[in-house]
Amino acid sequence: MTLNKKELTYLNTLAISCLATGLIDEAQPAFELMNESAPLNSAGPVGLASVELAKGNHDKAIEILQNSAEANRVSADQARTLLMHALVATNRLDEADELRDSLRQLDAANDDHEYLTQSHKFFGTGDPRLLGS
């Protein structure tokens, strides 16, 4: 089944809303469907990794992110940020420190507007019009 952009956006919004309100089991099938129907879109693997993090399956989240990053399905920023959280949670602090250092070097980390824009894109939250002020 192939979903169009509007359907993917709706499904992503629904899944993120479920995840944000603690409905983890309800979010997972939506992210799985996105992962299968839009294999080049990062929303599926990022969502699935987020579900695994919420369930406490940090190693599984790391695996999903590493595989997706290798396949160029998620942006480096998205993968690094989620991966860093998963590494910290699994007490792999040396690896997390390496990622944290690389994140500090990114231009976006020093630009509040860009950081907010990227956060909005990733989480699909907030009103993007507020970013223009």
CATH topology (fold) name: Serine Threonine Protein Phosphatase 5, Tetratricopeptide repeat
Shape: globular
CATH class placement: Mainly Alpha
Major sheet description = none
Rounded Rg = 15 Å
User: In what range is the share of β-strand residues?
Assistant: under 5%
Q: Any idea what the CATH architecture is? A: Alpha Horseshoe
Q: Count the E strands.
A: 0
Tally of DSSP helical segments: 7
Q: Kindly state the mean pLDDT as a whole number?
A: 75
Describe the structure.
- With 133 residues, the protein is mainly α.
- The chain has a single domain, classed as Tetratricopeptide repeat domain (Serine Threonine Protein Phosphatase 5, Tetratricopeptide repeat), CATH 1.25.40.
- The protein is 71% helix and 0% strand.
- It is built from 7 helices and no strands.
- Helix 1 (5-20) runs antiparallel to helix 2, helix 1 (5-20) runs parallel beside helix 3 (43-55) and helix 2 packs antiparallel against helix 3.
- The chain is globular and about 40 Å long.
